[in-house]
């Protein structure tokens, strides 16, 4: 598996403003945009400012829908689903299913039952971080864009919880949160 990580400083005022890095700390992509209103979008750019992937919100509801494009060509939809109290996403035309544990902030992307990518999120004093591992490198930018979507739909009580250190693949260490529900007042 190959790996990327994303960083969003806490001081950024826009809804989404991420830099995507490889393990050599080279910036590969920029992600900018916002969610929440019809036609809002999040876009992944290369370092030359060229748009690579775009997710545009086309349905506002508890089960929103997004149109996904690659280099301005439609490639599918991202749909949120709830079944038996489990939240998951599908990416049509690519036959992907995204499931995860919102409490642990860990997600898996599968295609026909085979895991093709994993996403883990943490928050630290310098901002939000995502660790992304993947086996299909042609979609590495799309995995990053999906990470922002998953973060946006995480339940509010999971934001800003105490950290724990996790040993990642290939002996890399990452800080992740150990989620604790908010106390009722």
From TrEMBL:
Gene3D superfamilies in the record = LURP1-related
Where do transmembrane segments lie in this chain?
Answer: none
InterPro entries per record: LOR, LOR_sf, Tubby-like_C
Family, according to the entry, reads as follows:
Belongs to the LOR family.
- The protein's name is LURP-one-related family protein
Q: Which organism is it from?
A: Atopococcus tabaci
Give the organism's phylogenetic lineage.
Bacteria, Bacillati, Bacillota, Bacilli, Lactobacillales
